[in-house]
Structure formats: C-alpha cells, structure tokens
Write a structure and sequence with these properties.
Elements lengths: L11 E5 L6 E6 L7 E9 L12 E16 L1 H5 L3 H6 L2 H8 L6 H12 L12 E5 L5 E16 L5 E12 L2 H4 L4 H17 L4
Antiparallel strand pairs: 1-2, 1-5, 3-4, 4-7, 5-6, 6-7
Length: 201
C-alpha cells in the first residue's frame, strides 16, 4: 500500500481592492512559519466600570499576530529562474514591502493637487490585506510592521535569503463596518471561530 501523506498547505498574504474586494495579487509563504503569536485585548467599557457594566464589551477584541517567514532563492536558482538569477529575492521582498506603501500614482496625484492649491488632501488608501493561515483562518489585516533581515547575497549583492518578521492587526467590524469587504470577511472569521468553539464538549 502506497504511503500517502497530506499535502502541506502554505500560508499566504493576499491583497484585494479595498472597495470591491477584487484580488490584486498575493505572496505565498515559501516556508510556513514555525510559530505564530496571537494576542487578544478585550474591548471593555471604560477603565473602572460600575457593577452594571463590568461584563459589557464594546466590540470584538483587538487581535494582533506576529510571525517570522523565511524567503530563500535556492530552489529558484537551481531551476535557473531568470528573475531570480537577475534580482535574487528582491521581487518577493518588494511585493511584501509594497503592502505598506501608497501607490506612486497616488503620490503623484496628491502632489499635483497640492500644486493646484487644493487645501485638503485625503489620506491615501492601501489595498486590503488578507492573512491566510489554513482554510478556516482567513482574516483581513493591517500590516503594523515589517522587519527584514537579509542573510545571504549573490555576487551582484542581490539578497538570496531573508527572514521577514511581520506584525499584523486583524481588522474587525468596529474598524471597517459591516458593509466593507473586510467587515464581511471578519464576520466569516468570527462565525467560524464560534462554530469551532461549539465543538468543545
């Protein structure tokens, strides 16, 4: 009898249009992090609530996620991938970094509006980011910090191995509302959590 092992799913970070929810791109994690740290901070009523409010909640908790992902060019270099031979892992790092950048077109448009004398310039909106960690855990997030440690380089000084530390905050309906695509995704996440909790005997 053949030895059948389950196919390992890879985590990913996806970006969607914040208004329509249309996919814009994604970064599949080459190696799944060995650990993920999640912190939940309950949203209680006030600092010292009276007895009638001591168990009340203002909304879902503020949930943060921290993980470290590794990016390595070894397999792509061995396969002779043209982009990796030319740039190393810079394309993958750039895709991650751009999650926290406004687009160049928005920067140029805002500068043009400033030169035309527009008094109020609206803050630029980033794409909606999803952290995908198994079929049952797909959450809308805001990237709070990215720390990149480049650990090895090719002869042209392109990075070929790096560790990326990601800090993320899960966006809930208090942050984005129910009608936003992120709000709908959050509700799927919370309802799924409630269904899992119901399985506990």
């Amino acid at each position: 009898m053949a030895n059948i092992s389950p196919r390992l799913q890879k985590g990913a970070i996806l970006s969607l249009d914040a208004t329509t929810g249309v996919p814009l791109g994604g970064i599949s994690l080459q190696y799944n992090p060995e650990s993920i740290t999640r912190s939940l901070h309950p949203q209680t009523v006030g600092g010292e609530p009276d007895r009638s409010e001591v168990l009340r909640l203002k909304g879902p908790p503020v949930e943060t996620i921290k993980c470290v992902a590794e990016i390595d060019a070894t397999d792509l270099l061995a396969a002779g991938d043209a982009n990796t031979l030319k740039f190393g892992i810079q394309p993958q790092l750039a895709a991650l970094e751009l999650l926290v950048y406004p687009s160049s077109s928005e920067l140029i448009l805002n500068e043009a509006l400033t030169l035309l004398g527009t008094i109020e310039i609206l803050p630029m909106e980033s794409a909606l980011t999803l952290f995908v960690w198994s079929k049952s855990r797909i959450t809308p997030v805001r990237i709070t910090d990215i720390e990149i440690t480049e650990e090895a380089f090719d002869p042209q000084l392109n990075p070929i191995r790096a560790r990326v530390s990601l800090g993320m905050r899960i966006l809930n309906v208090n942050d984005v509302g129910f009608l936003n695509p992120a709000g709908a995704l959050y509700m799927v996440h919370q309802i799924g959590k409630e269904a899992l909790a119901a399985l506990v005997g």
